[in-house]
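Predict structure. Input: Beta-lactamase hydrolase-like protein phosphatase-like domain-containing protein, 557 residues.
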Amino acid sequence: MEFRKINDDLTVSPQIAASDLSEIAAAGYRSIICNRPDGEGADQPGFEEIEAAAKAAGLETRYLPVISGKVQDTDAEAFGRALRELPGPVFAYCRTGTRSATLWSLSQAGQMAPARILMATKQAGYDMAGVVRRIVNGGKTPTDTGDASFDVVVVGGGAAGIAVSASLKARKPDLEIALLDPADVHYYQPGWTMVGGGIFEPETTARTMGSLIPKGVHWIKSAVAAFEPQNNAVILDGCRVVKYQRLIVCPGLKLDWAKVEGLVETLGKNGVTSNYRYDLAPYTWELVKGLKGGTALFTQPPMPIKCAGAPQKAMYLSGDHWYRTGILPRIDIQFMNAGGVLFGVKDYVPALMDYVKRYDASLNFFHNLIAVDGPAKTATFAVNTPDSEPFTIDVAFDMMHVCPPQTAPDFIRVSPLADAAGWVDVDQNTLRHKSYDNVWSLGDVMNAPNAKTAAAARMQAPIVAENVAADIDGLSPHAVYNGYGSCPLTVERGKIVLAEFGYGGALLPSFPKWLLDGTKPTRAAWLLKEQILPPVYWKAMLRGKEWMARPEKVTAG
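Output follows.
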């Protein structure tokens, strides 16, 4: 007997014996549902035998037999009704547990997000790929899926999605490309650090999505619910189906604000802010200007996160303002980092440490934010230093800039495209999926070991476009990604440490050292960030103009 827990209300299992009922009752279950028809297998106890043993153990029962592979909509409705009527928690079984898991999935489809259903069943050991369209369709069998078909489907209209669509369209003007994204607004997220530092106005970082979709690319304004790579299909909310010859996956990542207890309730008030949200970055600057003394916390969660330098960028720009206005001696800056180093590439650390000292900031490593009490202005951290017992600590604050925990989007984590950690599983050189030859991925969602930055996406987009174009022409992928990423660390107003690096921390500077030494704070790097990169983003990267981003090609020797 196996206990495969779906949630607190339901556990499913392969076939059980009458002798198992006492153990099931002892584990706290109050009802049994049998989804296996009598006589399906020669070694199978009949339901009457199970029912008698269940009654003796004080358990209620329900017999809802379903023929294997033939779960009807009415069966799912009956299963959902049984869950409501029977005392819980409920223990359901069939031959393998799959029918019971399927019935639960379909019965909950109208009430629960498809990704949550798929995650719950996946964690219990059941793959619901065969009924994903029905789950997306509210648990009902679709009568008209309304298939649309394209040469290439791009999932995600962020920096990566629009850039790769534009680069591919430039190479193959006749391709029928569809871009899937439900958002109305596209954001230049690298600008939010500057908004939080009082340098950019927030409006300059936002444009309508419709104004940025490359000419000739079809924009399908809908969210993705699930993938069927075995059928070359993407399932949209509402169970519409979009078919493809080739798929490019780049929806970004998920900011998991709810993972920190109390954070959602206090964001934007009580001195709690974040440059990771468009609407909150102006509040960061408001808090920085208004703080005249006290404790300022800057948090960084466990990796991976997008723009790993952003949490400390906020600290440096805030510290610089307090330094210039003469109130820094009255402010206690605390950097609370869940990791064990200030920055992952050691060549840039000396310059950063100079600014840590200038702003008299305390570095607290292995401190992970787990809870916030906004009204009490107290943050709770889990401290897990090497070679010591973990503990928690409460820290009072007057202002706190939070970088939220981050993960792949739910619909990616439960998909066949994901690796064990939930990220899209690609070859780190070609960015082609390891299992599905007609699938590629770029941006924050894929699992190559590079920094998750807009600069990385700027380099990846032409590489994916080049390799997809080659594949269409019957050639092997020949453009290679070296892991390039860039993090312009705003150490003070007017100076930046321009970190540029690739796989393994290898330095990959874009400019000669005499022009711009990225390991030192320079005015030139600041001008690049403030004045050059925004127009490069809007007018070049998103339009398929690959300025300083031409893909490196490798040919067979």
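The first strand starts at residue 4 and ends at 7.
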